[in-house]
Amino acid sequence: MKKNEKNQYTIFKDLDISFTEWSDIMIFLKTNSIIQTVNETSYIKLLENIHITINKLGGFPSFDKYLISIFSKISKRQNKNIYNPMTPEEDNIQKYQWKIATIITSDIELYSFTIPVPGSNQNSYYYVRKLK
DSSP label at 117? Predict the structure, then answer.
């Protein structure tokens, strides 16, 4: 480890770790959480910055577990906001134009297939949709 002219170790300078980065790590070590930010994007950026800094120090398994937990929660929250109806009945906000088609139906270039129509013979008919 290097020392400066005052015989002090310079590990943070050598590893390019700022006072703010070290403070964020210390908050995590003391509270097992990080400070909240204005929005989710800045929160994720802060998590990434802390992770990079912690990796410079060799990594902390407790922070890895924390990251997995946080990203799992974020992923679940984002998945709840996905609107993906598979049938006309599920299209509560009537976002799509629906048809029933077969794989050889013409004039469905702008449509996407969803699921087979229940009761159709050998899955020969499918719901297809396109944005209105």
Answer: P
